């Protein structure tokens, strides 16, 4: 088998794991020859080696190859992009509808990567479809330009969504606790808390607030009653 053929690399990656094999088969089904990169049989040895390293990496990684910046990525990246996988495999980056508003920022990251060996992008947020809903995903990114004669970029991601949200919510609660302390009585506190929920819907998506009041019943005993304040 020709060493230069990426097919030999794909066969090395097929180790009996059903999910891994399905991902490799997805790579094979893309009509690569419609792009400037051409059919897989013509891909250079250097690209085959990089593909192998990307596919075995545990971190989300992808390649933007050819003039069109066509996406080729590993399983971890497929998990990161939620419901956009597998439809975006083998698609030019600028054709992905959900990311149209981020084209300028993405282009800026790629330009920066041409100036240094590896460009590290600060944490940013990008929407991903997840079960029919857009979800904001927080990411950190390292971008490297592929070496000649290859054309394109190598991207390595770290998802920071959970960490960023925990820190944001901690900061929000700290700020709100100072606001809540300004309440003069219990009922004014409910109003302040409810307004805080309205102002911070991403951090507090749902809440029910009850208060308790004592009122005399027919036997002149104090009865505890719960009231839904909001």
What does this structure look like?
The chain has 2 domains: 6-159, PAS domain (Beta-Lactamase), CATH 3.30.450; 165-228, no CATH class. 17% of the residues are buried. The protein is elongated, with a radius of gyration of 26 Å. The chain is 36% helix and 24% strand. It has helices spanning 6-13, 18-29, 45-56, 75-80, 103-113, 161-180, 186-199; strands at 61-65, 70-73, 119-130, 133-145, 152-159, 210-216, 222-228. Strand 3 (119-130) and strand 4 form a beta hairpin.
* CA-based gyration radius: 26 Å
Q: Low-confidence segments, ≥5 residues, pLDDT <50?
A: none
CATH topology name of the largest domain, in short, is: Beta-Lactamase
CATH architecture identity of the largest domain: 2-Layer Sandwich
How many domains make up the 3D coordinates? 2
Number of distinct helices = 7
Which strand order spans the largest sheet, edge to edge or round the barrel? 2-1-5-4-3
Described by the principal axes of the CA atoms, the overall outline is elongated
**How would you classify the helix and strand content by structural class?**
alpha+beta
Order of helices and strands: HHHEEHHEEEHHEE
Q: How far apart lie the N and C ends?
A: 70 Å
The averaged pLDDT comes out at 89
Q: What is the beta-strand fraction? A: 15-25%
Overall number of strands: 7
Largest sheet, in brief, is: 5 strands, antiparallel
């Amino acid at each position: 088998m020709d060493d230069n053929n990426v097919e030999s690399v794909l066969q090395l990656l097929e180790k009996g794991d059903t999910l891994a094999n399905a991902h490799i088969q997805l790579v094979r089904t893309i009509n690569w020859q419609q792009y400037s990169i051409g059919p897989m049989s013509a891909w250079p040895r250097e690209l085959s080696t990089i593909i192998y390293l990307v596919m075995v990496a545990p971190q989300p990684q992808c390649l933007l190859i050819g003039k069109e910046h066509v996406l080729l990525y590993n399983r971890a990246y497929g998990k990161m992009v939620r419901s956009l996988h597998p439809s975006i495999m083998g698609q030019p980056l600028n054709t992905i509808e959900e990311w149209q508003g981020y084209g300028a920022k993405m282009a800026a990251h790629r330009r920066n990567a041409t100036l240094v060996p590896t460009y590290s992008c600060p944490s940013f947020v990008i929407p991903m479809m997840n079960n029919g809903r857009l979800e904001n995903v927080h990411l950190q990114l390292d971008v490297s330009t592929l070496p000649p004669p290859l054309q394109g970029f190598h991207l390595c991601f770290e998802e920071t969504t959970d960490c960023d949200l925990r820190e944001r919510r901690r900061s929000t609660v700290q700020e709100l606790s100072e606001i809540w302390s300004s309440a003069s009585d219990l009922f004014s506190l409910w109003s302040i808390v409810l307004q805080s929920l309205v102002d911070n819907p991403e951090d507090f998506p749902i809440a029910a607030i009850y208060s308790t009041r004592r009122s005399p019943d027919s036997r002149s005993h104090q009865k505890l009653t719960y009231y839904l304040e909001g």
